[in-house]
Amino acid sequence: KLILLNSKAEGDSPAARAGRNKMIELCRKSGSAAVAKEMLPKMLAKVTLEKNPALVETVVKMMEDTSALTIQHALEALRDRDDQNQFIGTIRIPTLLITGDGDALTGPDVMEPVHKAIIGSKYVVISNAGHLSTMENQSAVTAQMQSFLNEKMNS
């Protein structure tokens, strides 16, 4: 079984690459805290930002505690990854796709086409969750994953 959680198949467009390069430069010049400030609204759902200050604080601390070099490497890897759309339709195992309804990075507009390309896949949109759905609505994500993993496979 395969679970694709808050992810996407396509590689970065030229505009997205330019954005990542800008973020890499910000990280080099100003460090992890500057990236955390810039990325936070994209990582968490609006409802989380407004109503869960403890989680916001936890995420900011995690981001700020990550070394600038680690963030740069992650951004470079995301920028340079190959587009996988040509392979998505070849997936022939039970697949669960999960995204948050407030995910600004890999939300329903990004995940639904992947779901449609994988024959027989199951697609779930988690409410009150952004890109960090496992932190924002962990009980809903966990329940969906457990249900999927406990389903018997057809032989």
Count of helical stretches: 9
Mean pLDDT, to the nearest integer, reads 95
Strands, count: 3
How large is the radius of gyration?
17 Å
Categorize the overall geometry: globular
How far the N terminus sits from the C terminus, by CA atoms, comes to: 13 Å
Strands in their spatial order, largest beta sheet: 1-2-3
The helix/strand order is EHHHHHHEHEHH
Write a compact overview of the structure shown.
Helix content is 59%, strand content 10%.
Would you write up a description of this structure?
With 155 residues, the chain is mainly α. It is built from nine helices and three strands, in the order E-H-H-H-H-H-H-E-H-E-H-H. The chain has helices at residues 14-30, 32-43, 46-51, 53-65, 68-80, 85-88, 108-117, 133-136, 138-150, and strands at 2-5, 95-100, 122-126. It has a three-stranded parallel sheet with strand order 1-2-3, with helices on both faces.
